[in-house]
Design brief:
alpha/beta; 9-stranded mixed beta sheet; two-stranded antiparallel sheet; 14 helices; disordered N terminus
């Protein structure tokens, strides 16, 4: 097979998102995992994951994000963290924190874990249980966060916000300060995977969004470097599209639990793309040469107005998966962009869904069809 020429602007990925498993104690209705989840017996072995880390380091990856599902359900997590430390990869554990004992956390820290990112579904105990589908979750998360800080590990709180918890955003900030978190990520739901299936149940009103912007601005001014706050707005209310995953195949490489290598979570929703597996191909070949990773690199694939737009090197045309799921054309201008002829359509869709009574959540489930539970 002839190698596809590498464009001169393409560099190695900065981060590897290692989705170790799709198993998870929570059932969040906004999960970015696909609707068809990978069963335990199809997960990569320890041996393969350790080889992937070796290949990632050789490729030039600097950061390892250990995700899922819930990565702590892998009994080999300490071995994976230890190999990352040996390879000088900065390791970040992305966790729900509800089933991790202090002893396990100490073992991970001893193995070389560098950072912990903890998801918090709500600051209200009942809301946290209802959104995550796990009773007593908030108390467990708070205890876990305190154990993280007691070990001296940096802590980020991840607050995915939507119509059901957005009115408590100020309390999310207070909780981050109380737990001595270094960073708070306020991320409005991005509508892919389970979140797309639950869009009507999750979509906030424009007034809620505007209020969240004000709260984040005030918190940043008040707390400064004491608490760094990242903020991600919902695409459906945006003016410009986000540079999804920093551009297709530009900065992040994702390895799914079954070994498929992806430029982002939702990439398999685009038809006609064959994503190779680490079981069959080296990571470097997949990144540099595979047709799927080449598909939306550069600018030749772009339609107008993207191709001649001065922002094309800022947002790279926006999200290809969103263009596909909303317009049926992965080459179309992301409708989140105000220059898209379809922009008014998705804004109207968001406003209509936000104004309607929320339907029941369709909860994320691994072994059974997602159940409808009153929201």
């Amino acid at each position: 097979m002839n190698a596809i020429p590498r464009e001169p602007w393409r560099e190695p990925p900065i981060g590897l998102l290692a989705e170790l498993t799709h198993r998870c104690p929570l059932a969040c209705p906004y999960c970015s995992n696909p609707l068809e989840l990978t069963a335990r017996e199809r997960e990569l072995s320890t041996e393969v994951w350790l080889r992937v880390l070796e290949e990632a380091a050789a490729l030039g990856v600097l950061q390892l994000h250990l995700s899922g599902g819930e990565p702590t359900l892998r009994t080999d997590l300490e071995a994976i963290v230890a190999r990352a430390r040996a390879l000088e990869l900065y390791s970040n554990l992305i966790t729900a924190g509800v089933g991790v004992s202090e002893r396990r956390l100490e073992a991970l820290a001893k193995a070389g874990l560098d950072h912990v990112q903890l998801s918090v579904q709500d600051v209200d105990p009942e809301g946290c249980d209802r959104i995550g589908g796990f009773k007593g979750s908030l108390a467990r998360k708070v205890a876990f966060a305190r154990a993280v800080r007691a070990l001296g590990l940096p802590l980020t709180l991840n607050a995915v916000v939507h119509r059901h918890n957005l009115d408590r955003l100020e309390r999310f900030v207070e909780l981050a300060l109380e737990l001595e978190a270094d960073r708070l990520e306020v991320a409005h739901v991005q509508y892919y995977g389970w979140a797309l299936a639950n869009r009507a149940a999750l979509m906030p009103t424009r007034a809620q969004l505007d209020r969240s912007v004000e709260i984040v601005k005030a918190a940043r001014e008040r707390y400064g470097d004491r608490l760094l706050i990242d903020f991600v707005v919902p695409d459906y209310y945006a003016t410009h599209p986000k540079p999804c995953a920093s551009g297709w195949g530009r900065a992040v490489i994702l390895v799914a639990p079954d070994g498929r290598v992806l430029p982002c979570h939702a990439a398999p929703t685009i038809p006609g793309l064959d994503f190779p597996s680490v079981k069959d191909r080296p990571l470097a070949w997949i990144w540099h040469e595979s047709p799927a990773f080449q598909r939306f690199r550069g600018f030749e694939w772009m339609q107008e107005p993207c191709r001649s737009c001065p922002r094309r090197e800022i947002d790279f045309g926006g999200c290809r998966c969103q263009a596909m799921q909303l317009l049926g054309d992965p080459e179309a201008t992301d409708p989140a962009c105000s220059l898209s002829p379809h922009h008014a359509r998705i804004r109207a869709l968001a406003e209509a869904e936000a104004a309607s009574a929320p339907p029941p959540f369709r909860y994320r489930r691994l072994a059974e069809p997602a159940a409808a539970v009153p929201a």
